[in-house]
Task: structure prediction
Amino acid sequence: MKKALLLLLGIVAVCFIIANVDYLADFFNTMMTGALVPMVIAILLMLGRHFVQAASYDAAFDAVGHATGFWHNVVLIFSLVFINTFCLFSGATGVAFIIDDAHREGCDAGQSTGGAILSQIGYFAAVFVISVIGFITMWISGHMNTVFLVGGLALAIVLVVLSSLFFIGHLKPRILYRVFLVLEKLINKVLGLLKKALKPGWGRTMAHSFVATSDLLAKNPKGSIITVAYASFSAILNMACLVAIGYAFGFENVEALVAAFAVGAISVILSPTPQGVGVVEAMITAILTAYGCSVATAAAIALVYRGVMFWIPFCIGAVLLSQAGFFKSKKSATEMQKQKDIAWISGTLVFLVGAVNIGAVFFPEAFTPYTMLVSWIDMSALMVGIPLILSSVVLMICAIGLIQRFRTAWALTLGALVLIGGCEFLFQGTWKVGVACIILFAWLFWQRAAFDRPFSQKALQADIEDWKRRRQRKNSQANAKAEPEGSAQDERPESTWEQQADRGREIGREVVNQQMRNTTQANESRS
Result:
């Protein structure tokens, strides 16, 4: 299933690149007009910036007691650029991905969350340092920007809130317990709408582990300092990349380039678009023109900077994503697992063919930017309307059967591909769709050994029962893992005034009884 998801992400990435092909062409053509040496230096600074950011993440998890490895974090950093591009709440999604990745590497819940938050503190602290530099630069030159000022203040508030979690966890742990218990109730209310809930004792477990992480950081402040130092150096390399690009286009006003970078860094955080695409370019152009740079040169600098700092890491992240913890397999796949992976990949491809054709019927405008890609699977030249919808639905049903590895679904899919491809070749002359059908047919025929299950009611019931067993096993494992961490907190009864009073009376009675026994023994010894 994960390989099918990886395939989907790859297809989405291709669609995203095709939709921005004009932007990429402008970026490449503009980059060719800049000086070669500064441009090469800018690219090296970009790569260095991401490697230093990986060192910052490694230091963050080392500070909480579980280093995940430098190269592992290099893969993580580039993968985050790719993942955050397709998420509405990219920052929150990135943090969730970091936490999940650390958990897969063996960190407990508190270490994963603590390391992720510490890495984000380092990032925000680095941006704040750059913001202070930019503030001083813009204040001296008299070009203060309102958006930059508001964003810098918001960044400072976020930095204080994140850092305070560790201080509260170390100095006032009871407050942190209350916060997580309240958070647990709120999350369970939301999940209750979906008839789901967090693990039992989630709030106590998280608070207990987070407090332990805070205590560890308090004993090891050097780790936090190293994390922030690496992150700050990463931001400086990022700023140096913009300065080098400015020199590549003959604009050597370092003061203006530093101010533009500071505003751009704030814009990434405040921007509603993924990774600040479009917004950052506009802000950098505006600041540079305010310092006397021509509009053409400012636009070229902004375009090339965003291309170097976003598109190159994006492509690297797309390649390295398969090595990320979520997709990487920790053990060699069995023959059965390989067949399941083949079934998922095949079913996903066939399902996409049907889904895209149905979508093109109801929302043709949405697929217009991707004509270059859609033209390879567009069956509208062969049939339209209801026949096209029904054929697409049949393909989607067959795709589900392929995922279940049913031989009947495999045979029906091959027959449908032969009919569609043959008709496209013979009657419509649309060779692209015909070639795509032949390639998909050849793939399914080559992997025919994976589709060896007979289709029957018993097979469907077996799949449902197997799904239920795996779900129950997963829940039991999750509960068993949560019990050791939270049992010490859950089994300890909360003391009340009535319980303390009852205990006091019991102690008093024991003391009186002991005194009476001592008196009786003394009288007996005298007699």
User: Anything to note?
Assistant: Residues 138 and 144 are 5 Å apart (CA to CA).
